[in-house]
Design a protein that fits this description.
Elements lengths: L34 H25 L2 H8 L3 H7 L3 H27 L6 H17 L4 H6 L7 H23 L5 H22 L4 H23 L1
Helix pairs in contact: 1-2, 1-4, 2-3, 4-5, 4-7, 5-9, 7-8, 8-9
């Protein structure tokens, strides 16, 4: 299972927040150390991502993965307990990319010199691009109830991102108790992620319309507190 990540926002001067992501450790049976082993695991995971996107989670299995990756089945099992561990590792990597994307855009959200609507719009757009760039994303999201640990992982990620958004809003100068800001951030992120995740699977034209409507929704909600 993934370890916790944390976000720190430390002021460097009046308006320059600093955000840090701590590395997520994937659910590997054995962590590769030597360069060749690291390359093997990376190759297995890249192949797994393509395969899950192609056949879906139900049809995905370790024998098929080994065949497609041109490695022995025992090589797959050296690093992963079963196919669910492979999928969970893929999901953790996707969420790690989301962490990195979100921390980049939160630097802008936290800066009071920048219009908050522009900052929020950038965060939404970057999140869509990040998640849309993972071909296996749709298949893994559909399997959230079928893969042990996947729903829990998603819940921790949503909670973490909401907490980071609360930190950014406080850094921006939102003059409310931190507990209240956490609730505002949680509502914002829960609503936005609920729209983003299914919209990632839509065709580009439909996705563009969803992004536009999502921005309007978030603007309307946050305007009460930020205008």
């Amino acid at each position: 299972m993934a370890g916790n990540t944390r976000l720190s926002i430390r002021g460097k001067g009046a308006h320059t927040p600093f955000l840090e992501v701590v590395e997520i450790v994937g659910p590997l049976r054995v962590k590769p150390v030597q360069a060749r082993a690291i390359q093997t695991v990376e190759h297995i995971l890249r192949t797994a991502a393509d395969l899950v996107a192609e056949v879906g989670v139900d049809q995905f299995n370790t024998n098929l993965l080994a065949e497609r990756a041109e490695v022995r089945v025992r090589t797959v099992y050296r690093y992963f307990i079963d196919k669910h561990a492979v999928i969970l590792c893929l999901a953790e990597r996707m969420y790690q990319r989301a962490d990195e994307s979100f921390t980049r855009t939160l630097r802008v959200v936290a800066d009071p010199r920048i219009d908050w609507r522009v900052a929020i719009d950038g965060a939404i757009e970057d999140y869509f691009v990040t998640m849309g760039g993972a071909p296996e994303w749709a298949a893994i999201r559909r399997a959230v109830q079928a893969v042990p640990g996947l729903d829990e992982l998603r819940g921790r990620t949503v909670a973490r991102h909401a907490e980071w958004l609360a930190d950014a809003l406080c850094a921006r100068g939102l003059a409310l108790p931190k507990r209240r800001v956490r609730v505002i951030a949680s509502v914002t992120f829960a609503g936005a992620s609920g729209v983003i995740e299914p919209a990632v699977r839509r065709d580009p034209r439909q996705r563009k319309l969803v992004v536009k409507e999502l921005k309007l929704m978030v603007h309307s909600y946050l305007a009460t507190y930020l205008d």
